[in-house]
Description:
Keywords: Lyase. By secondary structure, this protein is α+β, with helices and mostly antiparallel strands. It is built from 3 helices and 5 strands. The N and C termini lie far apart (about 30 Å).
Amino acid sequence: MSRLLTDEEITRQLADLPGWRRDGDTLRSSYSSPSFAAAIEFVRLVAVDADQMDHHPDIEISYTTVRWTLSTHSEGGITQLDIELAHRIGEAAESTGSTTSG
Ligand SMILES: C[C@H](O)[C@H](O)[C@H]1CNC2=NC(N)=NC(=O)C2=N1
């Protein structure tokens, strides 16, 4: 349903996604949350979106740092679903006081 994006499509859309970078066939970001509880709430909000989208991130939680890796496994790379999920992660970050941390 969602095809692989071209290099140009990825680069152009990353311009609207502060804190996100391409790493091969994935999109990655790292966020810092104000507390461990806030980090867990950040992840919980994204979990609701991910189930609604039926599109799921890889997540690494290390105390107040949350690292996200997005790719569309069924296509073997980056699709519009990954871009959409990255935007939703940005919204959940704002709701929980989480900021990009490289
Ligand atoms: C059956 C179900 O729709 C698939 O397994 C979905 C679930 N979530 C998914 N998430 C991601 N990131 N990639 C997928 O290919 C994918 N497939």
